[in-house]
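User: two proteins, same treatment. go.

Assistant:
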Amino acid sequence: KPEMTSVDKLLIQGIRSFSPQNQNVIEFYKPLTIIVGQNGAGKTTIIECLKYACTGEFPANSAGGKAFIHDPKVAGEREVKAQVKMRFRSVNGKPIVCTRSMQLTEKASKQNLKTLEGALQTYDQTGQKVSQSYRCGDLDKEIPELMGVSKAILESVIFCHQEDSNWPLSDSATLKKRFDDIFASTKYTKALLEIAKQRKAQKASVKEYKLKLQIATNNRDQAAQLKSEIESLKASIEEGEGDNKTLEERLSKCNAKIETLRKQKSEFANAFSELATHKAARVEMERISTVLIEQIKTMLDESDEELKDMLSQFDNETKNAASRLAQFSAKLKELNAEKATFERKLLTFSEESGNLRSQLKRYEQLRMERDGLIVEFTGRYEIVGFEDAPFNSQQAEQVVNLANEKMIKLKEQLTALKATFKSKSDKYGKTLESFQVEIRGLSNGNEQIKRQVENNKRTVEQTSEEMKKKKQYSQTLDAVEKKKEDEEQGLKVAQGQAAELEKRITESMKQKTKLDKQMAEASAVIQQLLLQTEARSAIGHKKNELKKKKDEMTKILAKIEPQVKKHLKQMPEVSKLKSQLEKEISAKSKQLSELDRKWQDQKNQHSQAKGKFELHEAQVKSLKSDLADKRKKLSVVGNRSLPDLIKEAEENIGKRNKDTIMTESASRMYGKYLELTKQHDECPLCERSFQSKEKKSFMLKLEEMLNEVPEALRKNKETLKEQQMMLEQLNALHPDYVAQLRIENEDLPAAQKSIDQIKSDIERLQIIAETTGNEVEEIKKSIEDLNGLLPMCSSLIYLENDSAGLTKEIQVEESKLKAVSSDVRSLDDLNEELAKFQKDSEEAGESIERDRKKSMEIQRKLDEKKKTIDKLKDELFNMKGIGGELKKLSEKKSELENANVALLAEFEENSEKIQRKTLEMAEVQAKKTKTDKEGMRQEEEISSEKDNFQKMFNQLTNQCRQAEKENPDEIRRKIGKIEQDQKSAEAKISEISAEIEKANKKLSESRDQSAQRDLEKSNLQNNIKHRAQLRRIEDTDKKIVELEAKYAKSASSLQEIEKQLSKVEKEYSTLKSEKDQKIGAKATRMATIKERQRQLRSKPEYATADQDHQEMIIHLKTTEMAEADLDKYYHALDKALMKYHTVKMEEINKIIKEIWENTYRGNDIETLEIRCDADTSAKARSYHYSLVMIKNGTALDMRGRCSAGQKVLASLVIRLALAETFCLNCGILALDEPTTNLDRHNVESFANALVNILETRSQQTNFQLIIITHDEEFVQLIGKSKHADYYWRVSKDAHQHSTIERQDIQDLS
């Protein structure tokens, strides 16, 4: 017997109402398994688990699977784990266990579902268990393959959900999708579309390869022609290489002679320039000597060696003076440092004395404040024995202890008060909570009543709306009839449009036929022209060549015309252009020689003036550098005069010394007055007796003045030190100040005046030389431009000759071609016409295709309108039985309205109870609020008293602690010692100030002597410079005499060199012109070769023209064969699919008829059929399905015309037929509540039909029928067949968890 897929067992845990802690297992028998249970027990969950295990699809409306798993809130857990495990046998009889696991987690605002990895467990060849994990998507594909059926069959036929069981009567779109999935139509439709797409692509490739073959043929011929021309031009170039080598040798010799003569001419010019430079330098040396004589105050008669010895001696004296100056400065610095040390000590003593006096004063103040605070504190809090100040430390400590005891009593009183009022508030709070619980319960009851009333109102509104619609149906008979007439009128209009489109299609086809004929004629002409390709290609190449040569001539003429007109004033003929250019070059060369000699003389004069300027500029630069150094040193004084600053600094030092002495004297005087005031009760100045508080005020003022003295002394001494250092720096700058005045007023103005005069001469000579130089450069540029035009003239002559030859050759070839054919159009023109015809033909074909599609669309609309008209006829027929339905709806509406009246009465009673409880609760809340306020008031009073006491107690404690820290006797002892140290430091400062004054006087005398030595040294240096300048003048005179003698001998040689140079340059110009002509001809040929090579490179197809031609032929033939094969495949597959679909539909309808006739007990429906209409309007074939019932031989659409029981029975019959047809490898079928809406007769007949199916299929070992029902009578009818010994009962336990239990089927009776 053949093997079939079967299901053995199913394990469910944590799914819907099945417990997440316990596992429920159900075993499936062969051939029949019955599952019985009440509504809501969990029967359908078994079908959902089977479907989920096989396909991985969650049930519809399960919130993405979250509602499919046991709710964590019901289980009282944060996380619930669920598992479905199914054991089945595959097509080959192999046992397999499929496991799927899930996890649902409850979070704060949402639930999170996680699908864990699935597993398949099987057995290997040795009988060992093998388990493999799968991702969910992979498992969803694997299991349908193992079961031998598609996913669509599992979902729509085998394990169809109860909610989807009536899908055969759904709308046309849903029905089409279901049957397309069952037949797997989409997969084959895609294959057909892909084949059609590939066939179209191959067809387009054939057209493309035909055109490419023509192009490859043209490329092959054109490449051969270009290569032939390149070889011919290369041979011409090789012939002219010998002449070019001879000209190159002659030009090289001429160029060598020109370089030699120009070098000799340049040497003579350099000698003349050197002579002029030496003369200018001598004039400048004389001027510098005159300036030095003016700067020398005393002209010395000693020899040079003696002067150098004197200068060396001055340097030694300067070093000794500098050493002495450094010693004086170091001594002065040492004295100032020692004085500053004693001044710092004096300042420190003053600061320490002031600090100690401040501490003593602060101690007295703290003690007075403490005693005042004790008096205030004891008086406020009635502590006796502390009325009169002052107080000692023991008395202060006693007051602090008494205050601490008082603080403890206040804290205890506050704690007792809080406890009393808290107990009262808690008692009222418990009473309020009991009221709130009662009110909340009543409010929840009212909310439920309101929701029920709202639901009833909505149901009443829906019922009223439905009644209104039913009434409207009965009133719209005329409207339906009018609509039917409109549809019939629209049908006539659509038929007219279809006829118009057919007419347009006929005209387009005639136009396409005409275009195809024109394409054939053009192809014939092209075939004839292909035979003449070589001749036409040659003419085309020569025409292109002629055009390029003329274009090149035009470009050359356009390029040289502005230059020719610029030099010759007009554009001569091409034949005379070269001779006129050579004549102009000769004239320009003569003019250049004359101007060049004049320009050299001007440059020599400019060089002499420039040398003179550089000598003066170096002197000015040296003076400015010295002046900048002096100014940099003197920049510290700013814009003021140095002598004025020195005088001002000396005056300030004297003033600061006086201020210091006066401050020190005032300090001693104030100290003495203070001592006298302490000893006597009278003023030390006026000897008047003090009043009660005047003495204390006077002493405080003297102490303040004494405290200010150290700071004033410190500031005076710091200022004095700074001013002394400033005076030293100013005295050191005095020699630089004298030198700066001399350079600014005498040396620099004289040197600048000479430079300005020389600069004016240089500018004048430079303008003259530049003008002449510009003229020379213009003539040179003109000669270069004219020489550059000569090669272009040669190229023009060569191009003109070639153009004339090409024109004659083209005329000869065209005359030959006209003798053969009168059509002189090129192959490219004909290809363009052919492409245009092809494009127009394709557009006509597309237009025909569009019109055909529109025609098919109109035909489809015609069919739809016919169906609409049939439907309207049926609707008119069905509008007669609406009265009974209106009566039932009215009774239902009355029941709901009465229920709402009772619910509203209960709502009013609960509202009155809530109002009474709310009033009672408000009274208790008022008492609680009053008690809380009183407790808070008394607590705030005691807390305020405690806080005030605590604040004053803390202040008193701090004052006592601070007053005990100070020791007044020790402070007075330290003040006396510091005053003695101050007096000794002041005496030492006076001694050091006297020594500093002596040292400053010696330092000033030493600086004056140093400045005088610098002046004498400068005079000595100027004498030495003057003698050196006289020696340089003597050497320059000797050099000038030598150069003048050399120039007299060379004058005649220079004229001879210029004459030879002019002759050789003329010969060089003639040879260069001849060479340029040769180069122009060669360049033109090379340009032509490069152009031909560029043409070969510009089209890569030229390089592989022969190979491309052969490959194109192969591609064309193979593509034509592929297109023919694809066309065969398309039609073969389309016919096979149509045949398969037809056979299967006939088989399905046959089984439907058989089961329906054996099951249905009514007389109104003879049988059912699934009608299938093929739609060819789309690119690929598709089918439209509809379920019809046969009445008296007439087929009517069953949707909308049958009862609920007929719907259920029809759906079951169709599923049985589909299972019989498509489930060849899987004998499983599950029916969920199959008797829903069936009357007793149809239930019995359906049971008999199932028994017959079981009898028929019992020969199959793995056939399984699973029936889930709540109808125990239906189970008894099936149980009589003796195909089931047991059945499974699904029920709920005490925890409302679903359980499965096997029971004997005989127990049902």
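Protein 2:
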Amino acid sequence: MFFHYVQIFDTLIAGRELNTSLFLEYYPKLVSSNDAQYRGIVLEGLPYNSVKILDPADTSESTEPVTPFPDLKVLETCIAMKPPHFKLVLVNLIMPEDDLCTRRAGQWIDPMTGVLYCGAQVEYSKRRRAEGWVDGTPDTLYEEAWDEEMRTWDFEVAEPVKKAVGEFEEEGGEIAEDEEEEEEDENDGDGSEGKKRKKTSEKDANGVRFDLSNKKVWVILQNEVLGRLVKRPEDVTENLSVDFAGFQGKKPSIEKLKRKYFDSMHTINLDARQHPDILLRNAMNRLAALGFSLLRKPVSTKKLEIAPGFFSGMTQQDIYTYLMTLDVEPGEPQREESSWGHFCPVKFYEQNTLVHTGFEIPVSYRGCFYFLSDEHSYNQFVGNPDKYLEIPPTLMGVNLCVLGGPFTGKTAQSKMLAQIYNLKYISADEMLSEWDSDPNQRELKKSNKRYAEIVERCRTGQSVAPETMIELILIALRNKTPDLGGNSSGSRGKKSTGWIIDGFPRTIDEARAMVSAGLSPDYVVLLSNGNVSEIPTRKPAVPVDDMPNLPVVMFPYFDNLYNGFKEELSDIVKLLETKSKLMETGAEQSIPTILAIIQSAIDSFLPKAKEISEKQLGELGFFEMGSTKDFCPFALRQVNVLRKGNPQYAVKYLSQIYYLSNEEAKYAFLMEPHNFADVRNLMNPPPPRFFFLGPQGAGKSVCMKSLEHWGAPILRFEDYIYEYAKTAEKSDQEEIEYMMRENAGVLSPILIEDIVSSLFKREPYATKGFLLEGFPRTKADAEVVVKHNLHIDAVVVLRIDSEVAAKRIMHEKKKDALASKREASAILTVNPNDKRALESLTNADLEIKRLQDHEADLFDDLVSSVDKGNMRVSDAVSSFENAWQVPIIEIDCNKCLRPMIGSLKRQCVPFFENRPSLLSNALKIEFREAEMLLRLGIKSYSRFEKICPVSLKKNSSVLKRHSGSKPVLFRDHIYYLRTEEFRDEFVNNIQEYISQTPPQPAVRPQIAILGRPKCGKTTGAARISKEYDLVHLTIPTIINSILQGSENISLSKKITQSLHAGECLPEDVILEAVLLVTSRAVCMARGWVLDGYPQTIHQAKQLEAFGVIPHVVFHLNLDEISMYQRTDNDMRIDIRSKTPHLNFAGVTRERNEIHAQNATLLKSMYKGTYENWIEIDGSKSKWYVKNELVRYLEGATKRRQNYTDLKSKVKMLDNGELVFAPRGTDYTAEFDGQFFKMSEKEYLALFLQNPEKYAFGPELPESLPERKSVSALVFPKHLELQGYCPVTLADGPSGFDSIIPGNLNYIVEYEERLFAFESEEKLGRFMKTPWAFANLELPKKLPPKIVQIPVGQLPIIGYLEQSVARSLTDAMTEVSKSRPKHPYKSLSASASEYIGYYLKSKNPRSKVWIQEKHSKNLERFLDRCALISEISTLAKGSSLPDFSYIEPENRQSGLDEKMRQFFSMQQSGC
């Protein structure tokens, strides 16, 4: 590239014409450069404005690429060279030819710099200097224009914010204005356009809230620049035609290239007549709408300047410490050592080798420092650092020997290490076993002499020579056996040259032979197992009876496996240590722990945890907690409890801080941090576990019951003791029974520990948690819990004054006594001789009397008891506070019930509702800190970018986007929240908010509002534009914006000429003005509301021809009588206010005639072609009109925003059905710049095999079925086929059986018609092939319709059947079964009373307790009815004849009691 620079520079110095071929050769090289592929490409300057068509050097006969022009060939080559992850976007600047001629003729060039300046900028600079502006002073006009531009483009400024009443004090009567407007509408109620708001700005009064004119201010040029500006010859009008002709000659090829590489979605058409600043903002806004994040910018590297020889004499750790703070910006966190250490990432990428570097070329990037080996590597790295860091460093070419006794796990470790690091796994035992299992032994021995020799030596009882074993290993190294686990992520597709030998050497002779053969490993891993008795714990011993009957001579070294190897081990290690590094660890540890220890020793690239002191924590400033927040990860992983960590045991791992609870936990974490910390996902907290403490009367049961909806089991400790005893051992059962009976329930510490720990293991408490009431009961109980680390989430302490609690207890005692008395009295009313009821009544009276007589003493006793309970609670809580950092939730129970429960729920929400986020390590940071972290690339924007996730969750409008300014750091991303309240809510419940779908790029609506005069178009347009910050466009405002902009364009001249001549503006001029303003940047960015245009079908078709089609066309309906009434009312208002007006009946009539002639045609065009015509009743209030506009606009915008997704959700498959794909991206493919979604995995595979077939095959039908609710069934719409199901009609049997009415819950709209279906299944069939059922016809003869008649209008028999027949039938059936006869009542009276009781007990509308009450009355009634038969049965049991007097001594037991009941009924009249 440098050669091209020299050539171009020499040519310019010599004053010669540049050869364009130099530039054409230079473009592809720039596009393929590291810098371009990292930062992105903006390709400008191609094609040239040259009339030269063919390149003489081009003799190719190929028809590709698409154009014969050399500059277009290069352009196409550059497009084809784009990286796969780049997206093509075409920014197409459009300007009429006459306006372009005017601009070219007016522009100037600086011959010193070659910079072109627009004529408007030159004129503005000269004018401002003539007005007295001098260098060094601010340009007030430019600053005002900048503020206006910020207001236009800052969407947050215009967001409608609901304020409290007090916040309106500084705004001078805004509330009064709204109230005044409401009064005006209440009085008139016609929503007229002529009403004027009294207190509003001039811009609001004119309906213009944004500056629609082109920007008129520029950056003022320096005097020396103005003095040397000249005109270019090619800008002379006569020469412009040559350039235009050259471009026209290339235009077909350019259009062909556009069609080949750019679709309509990725083509941005901009009106080039706008100011360059506005054009840039418009382009950026359009790019954001396409999903290109303008916030995510490439991160620059920073070279850390080091003087030569500065690091001499310094240790590596000292160098790293120095680089951590070298040239650190204020507020920037300390740099971290990268995972590459002192290896060069560029050399690894280019050569696939790990190259040690010096410390002379350090580079800072994304919060880490890297070392480059030379200047070439530095230049490559700076150009595209992500390219070289994409593949992480991996340990390569390492050679290992894994030694250990029998069953120490050496084979498992060897295979895992071989798989992780892509090493050649070698095991002499496995090689021999494989050969031994070969069925063709004779041929194998002939071909493999070494194997034959080994077999022969083993058969004769001789040992295998060490040299022979070494030859086996060399054979394995030469063989190309498959790698275990494939290539690692760092190998970049190349196989490693490293190896790992399992269990060799076993003897000192084998070790010597290994060293002599040059097979010394880099590391010797020794798995030590000093105690042979521990071997069975690794692998159970094989019973003697199951041992195979093999000759002993086959295993001459069998004893050495256990003894000989151990004796020679020290000599083996001593010999190998001279050439290798020794790594020894105990084999009794778990397999993951051993693997982690080995990896930490051999792999310098493995992320490691390191201790960090409290002093170092303080020096870090703000730091990010790990995935367990401030809880101990060891306790969480090992025993599944939440235990607060201690900063004294802090550990740093992957730039995050973890607090461990003790030395043991810290050691385990340092050994294998990846087993305790999940750096990618939120860790799941254990189930909620709570202790509830409080004295009697505090309301523990009520408080716990208020939390039961969160699903945690509620239990009392005393009840659980008995539950535990049922499954405990007999000795424990007896001890528990004795202690509960004889020792006031005080249990031994051992039992307490067993009982409470069982709650952490038994179901359902192990998975659902528990809310435990009444524990710990004493300080000793609390100490047991603390001693055995039975950690819980929180302790809820219910605080209450003793007097308040005593009053509650006394009140409950009195209440219980009175309830007992009432219950006993009710029983005695029915049965006066009920002994149990009499006893209960007596006891209740005594209790009431005792409470009344000794109330003061009892109250004092209760106060003393509550005081003791408070003391026990305080002692238990103090034990927790001194030993644990468990949260203590204190509730003031002196209040009434509702605030007490409300306080409890608020404090428990983080532990229940927000439990998935309980371990969230989100961190609030300052705005400047967030911006620095983003700029340096240490952290990145979240997928929400600057949209507030909480506002997004709570805001249902797709047109309102709420950005935030309160940053929160969570893992690798930064989230922005709108308010401090939202930030707190986000931190407390982060999982709910980050799991929602991020917002799609906002689609700003473009709508038109049409209707008769005085229908409320302007009022509705003004309100909807203010609601959503849209640009309110009327024809007068459009014309004024063009004239006020003083734009030097042909359209402005046409308008000025017509107005000065006193003529009406021609329709083509109005059309051109509408097209110009709607294409302005502010309209494209915010959306627009076109008020009252188009008025005619001709205007609508012209707009359509130029591509301006409103997303929604609202038509406000108003009858003529109301129209003239509103005209008259507005005219009176204008006369009173002496305002010039056009509110005359004749003017209104003329405008109405134009509307009447075109309304039907406009409706036919927009509704029939685009389905965007919405009718609204304009005769109602403006609030109604606004609400309807908002409702329809929200729905239409949401559908349009999801248009691309909708187009991909359904696809005509091979079977010709519409299949709706599920939500999500499981079966999504991208092809030709568009996304396509399939419903199943097999369809995705078919699409990927032949995407052209499906992407460019048959298009979707113009009309697609859409499910609707019953609310869609409004006049004039009606159900097709008179409401019968079309699918049943088509597929059902002949006759009336196929004519089934549809269910209103299953309605589908298709081709503007509504269909109802019998079931969900029938609806689904219609959705797949609606065209097969939409055009059916009903037979002439139909079954009688099912007519819904009000029950109250039925005849007497029908009314009874539909209302009470079922209940009465059931009651009479039951009375016929029972046939009751009550003493002293007739049969009819008895049956009637039975039916009454029965109906009351079965009334479904009664509460449960009322039904139970009447059920008991029914049972009591049946008992009375049974008295006669019972008396008769008892009387017949005597020896006397019937109806004779029976002496008392001869009577059956119970007869006298039955007789007393019988006669008492006569006395009481029951």
